[in-house]
Amino acid sequence: MNVRRRLISGSAVLAATALGLGTLSACSDSSAADNGGKLDVVASFYPMQYLAEQIGGNLVSVTSLTQPGQEPHDLEISAKQTAQLQEADAVLYLKGLQPAVDDAVAQSEVRTKVDAASLTSLEKHGNEVGRHAAEHDDHAGEESGGTDPHIWLDPVKYAEVASGVGKALEKADPDHAAEYKKNTAALVRKLDGLNTQYETGLKNTETKVFITTHAAFGYLAERYGLTEEAITGLDPESEPSVNRVKALEKMAKADGVTTVFYETLVSDKTAKTVAQDAGLKTDVLDPIEGITGKSRGDDYLQVMESNLKALRTALGAK
């Protein structure tokens, strides 16, 4: 997999930030009335779908371009999906995560285009990967330098995005603005509550370091004072170097790490190999890029709560 496909370029971030809510082009006469009374919303992948459904409620009809169980980074848009996007009232996506979606959105005439990356601040976390182990591995952090798109795994940032999405839907369908505002406020309260659960649950732990297959949890780690060590950096399908594995084993012993986390949509082979070599356990830490039968929960909030439980166990929460 080309690592660049996982990254958002600095110029794209600057452009998105500069445009901000101004990028939300909308025609107030659009309408929901054109679609049986519902606003037709296309979401790029599950975290965007969840926002649209929670905020839109019965006022919207939501379709996701990424099917459950499909790895979102490698999505290719079909002709049918292109047509579907063209006919939608609004599209909600995360620029830089799925290049095919970015291209399709740019070429479409969708009246409301909502880029989640423009609704919060994005950061670079690649440079932090391998912070503990870098001195023992020349390859640690070599995939660094890109902006981390995994903003939905930080409840605070996700709430910021939710607020922006709510305003966009209010503008796209002004006749129902009050309901969108109410639903947005309810979702933000849920996310605030989730943030409190994480703050409380991870405040007192035996270790602050956890190992994952790839660097998806940088925002989460930073928010709650943890350190993520990724086996393969930004690309979950790449193979770690021998030096990297040895460095992780040494770091795990030094920092009291007990568990190597893998995720539901990517093979667990590498995680289990590293864990076996280091005498560690394995468990799931789900980046929630899609909900499937393997997910530990039926929606974003439930899976995030399962992630918190897994982290508390692995970190030795008191």
- Low-pLDDT stretches: 1-33, 127-145
Helical content band:
40-55%
Distance between the termini: 40 Å
CATH C-level category of the largest domain: Alpha Beta
The sequence of SSEs as H and E is HEHEHEHEHHEHEHEHEH
Q: Biggest β-sheet, characterized?
A: 4 strands, parallel
Q: What is the CATH superfamily label of the largest domain?
A: Nitrogenase molybdenum iron protein domain
Question: How much is the average pLDDT?
Answer: 84
Tally of DSSP helical segments = 10
Structural topology:
Blueprint (H helix, E strand, L loop, with lengths): L9 H10 L19 E5 L2 H11 L3 E5 L14 H9 L2 E4 L5 H9 L4 E4 L39 H18 L4 H25 L7 E4 L5 H6 L3 E4 L11 H14 L3 E4 L6 H10 L2 E4 L15 H16 L3
Parallel strand pairs: 1-2, 1-3, 3-4, 5-6, 5-7, 7-8
Sum up the structure in keywords.
10 helices; 4-stranded parallel sheet; alpha/beta; Rossmann fold; 11% strand; 318 residues
Quick summary of this structure?
The protein has 318 residues and is α/β, with parallel strands linked by helices.
